[in-house]
Amino acid sequence: MVVQSKSSGVPRRQISDDEVPEELKRLGQARDALAQELQGLLRTMPRDVPAELAAMIDVHLQLLQDEALQDAVTVWITQHHYNAEWALTTQMDLFARQFDAMSDAYLRERKGDLHQVVDRLLHHLGGLPLTSMARPGSNDDAPRILVAHDLSPADMLRYREGAFAGFVTDVGAATSHTAIVARSMGIPAVVAARGASELVPPDAWIILDGDAGLVLIDPPAQVRAQYQARQLELARHAEGLKYLAVVPASTRDGQAVQLLANIESPQDVAAAMHAGAAGVGLFRTEFLFMGRGSDLPGEEEQYAAYRAVVEGMKGLPVTIRTIDVGADKPLDGIRPGVNPALGLRAIRWSLSDLPMFRTQLRALLRAAVHGPVGVLFPMMGNLDEARQACAQVDLARDELAAQGMLAGTVRLGAMVEVPAAALLVEDFLQQFDFLSIGTNDLIQYTLAIDRSDETVAHLYDPLHPAVLRLIAMVLTAGEQCGKEVSLCGEMAGDASLTRLLLGMGLRHFSMQPTSIPRVKQQILQSDAAGLKAWADQVVRSPTPRSVWNSGSPKLHN
Fold first, then answer.
1. What residues form DSSP beta bridges with 284?
2. What is the rounded distance in angstroms from the CA atom of residue 364 to the CA atom of residue 320?
3. Residue 326 carries which DSSP code?
4. 203: CB partners within 8 A, 6+ apart
5. CATH number attached to the domain at 243-549
6. Helix, strand, or coil here: 24?
7. What is the DSSP letter of 162?
8. Each residue's pLDDT tens digit in the chain (557 positions)?
9. DSSP label at residue 334
10. Going by C-beta distance under 8 Å and a sequence separation of 6 or more, which residues neighbour residue 275?
11. Distance CA 74, CA 87 (A)
């Protein structure tokens, strides 16, 4: 199935003075319809989809409501007498050139989001439904592969209901949020396949190899048979890993490893337990706050959500991160700043709104009465922030005591997401009970690479020597202090990196529940002590990937 941008066939005409009010009305109706559509998607979002989708849809809502876009399009209609579709695409072209000239990668990435918003507005202006999910040809049992110029978060949700088998996009990056969401949903994807939406015929047979980044169009029968056999083999392998849910994660030389789950809502607890998670390593609380406008969740609502997770994990440890907003996770009504990735975000935003912060902390302390809870502060960059955050926990505890309410004991931790935190690791370990390395942001900030920017995404490298040495520094310091250091993000769930991380000393992995079986299989077949010398060699090398590619000590069967 091929889906092309609606903007490619935009009607263009000059309108008369008498037609201006009608065009403005059409534009307003399209904007209202799209806003209702996106808000409806947020309200009815299935609980089994990654929460990053909510963040991406929230970004689209903010762009839709942006006054600069609305005012500029209105000028094209009222002063230049363009019809609404032409006005939209003309202004989009101007914005695109401005975005391309920006030095900040995060802001350049917003061009793709704006394109998606404009395309959906054009759909509403044309009164056209979204492209149907009818399968090509007469064989209704054939799996569907979506080929599109781009795929918005709303598209992902809508097409997910049609159970497509994979997708291909002209633009994007392998480390973009859309690609990450697809992997977490177990959907093969190839992004940045330039021109695919124009080159692939609507009724073509496609082989999509997400691992290799290949799209084969109308391959010969022999190649199709080979890939079908491989597909069956992979399905059998995944089925064979299900038994691992009840097997403790331990290396062959007796090193116990904790495999924890990343979750976004209480409904995700079932998936974590089904995968055999040893606890929750990261509960992203910001998704309780998104898509609600100014109606942020109060203490009782937050307490109920946190308590549901704690009780649902049946005594297993739960680490709950305080709200991490900014950059790719904005909230309605909060200005993103000149550079959202480097601005008022994460713990900085919490410390700028202490009543909101203590409301969350009180809810967390109350939930800790029902089971073991760790409170994790995001994007900690200096010791002053650390002391302020910990002091707010004490104040929240005092407020609960003054009301005669119970507060549980919590462990306090910080996320290592910026190089400054890694370099201050020994000081942070004196201040906190545990640390969690957030590899997605740590790599991004260390290398000054926006992983969602397709022009530089190839430089985003978890095996960069600077990244590995920062991770090794934090792991070593934690071992010497006798304190827990976990690792979350894409690296933790990448089974190809499991043996390296084991050799570096990592014993607490936190990942999407779907990744746990593959990572556990690697752990069960590995000798952690035997991996140490090889891992040290990889970390010390100026070209770690070459050493890593040469192969680690062999797995034990």
1. 321
2. 8
3. B
4. 136, 137
5. 3.20.20.60
6. helix
7. T
8. 455 444 445 777 888 989 999 999 999 999 998 888 888 877 776 665 655 677 677 778 878 887 878 888 999 899 888 889 888 888 887 777 676 665 444 455 566 778 778 888 888 887 544 443 333 333 445 677 888 777 766 666 655 555 567 888 887 766 565 666 666 666 788 887 888 888 888 778 888 888 778 888 888 988 888 888 888 887 787 777 787 888 999 999 999 999 999 998 888 899 899 999 999 999 999 878 876 666 788 999 999 999 999 999 999 999 999 998 765 555 555 555 556 677 888 899 899 999 999 999 999 999 999 999 999 999 999 999 999 999 999 999 999 999 999 999 999 999 999 999 999 999 999 999 999 999 989 999 999 987 666 677 778 899 999 999 999 999 999 999 999 999 998 899 999 999 999 999 999 999 988 889 999 999 999 999 999 999 999 999 999 999 998 877 765 55
9. -
10. 245, 261, 513, 514, 516, 517
11. 8
pTM (predicted TM-score): 0.70
- DSSP letters, 256-325, are B-EEEEEESSGGGHHHHHHTT-SSEEEEEGGGGTTT-TT----HHHHHHHHHHHHHHTTTS-EEEEPP--
Q: Which of 287, 179, 259 is nearest to 511 (CA)?
A: 259
Residue with token string 């050493």: 547
Asked if 325 and 317 count as a contact pair (C-beta separation under 8 A), the reply is no
Q: Residue 31 and residue 128: Cα distance in Å, rounded?
A: 14
Instruction: Compute, in degrees rounded to 10, the torsion defined by CA atoms 475, 476, 480, 483.
Output: 0
- Classified by CATH at the fold level, domain 1-231 comes out as Enzyme I; Chain A, domain 2 (1.10.274)
Domain residue spans of the chain: 1-231, 243-549
**Quick one: angle between helices 67-78 and 20-43, nearest 10?**
160
Q: Which residues contact 34 (CB under 8 A, 6 or more apart)?
A: 64, 117, 120, 121, 124
Nearest to 418 by CA among 389, 381, 452, 383: 381
**In the block, residue with structure tokens 């917003």:** 110
| Contact predicate 379/415, CB 8 Å | yes
Tokens at residue 139, please? 């064989």
Q: How far apart are the first and last CA of the chain?
A: 42
- Token pair listed for 496: 């190809």
DSSP string, 354-416: HHHHHHHHHHHHHHGGGS-EEEEESS--SHHHHHHHHHHHHHHHHHHHHTT-----EEEEEEE
Structure tokens at 554: 């062999």
Residues 222, 232: Cα–Cα separation, whole Å: 16
- For residue 142, give the DSSP letter: S
Q: Do domains 1-231 and 243-549 have the same CATH topology?
A: no
CA 381 to chain centroid:
22
What residues are annotated to the active site?
177, 488
List the structure tokens of 350. Answer: 């919490």
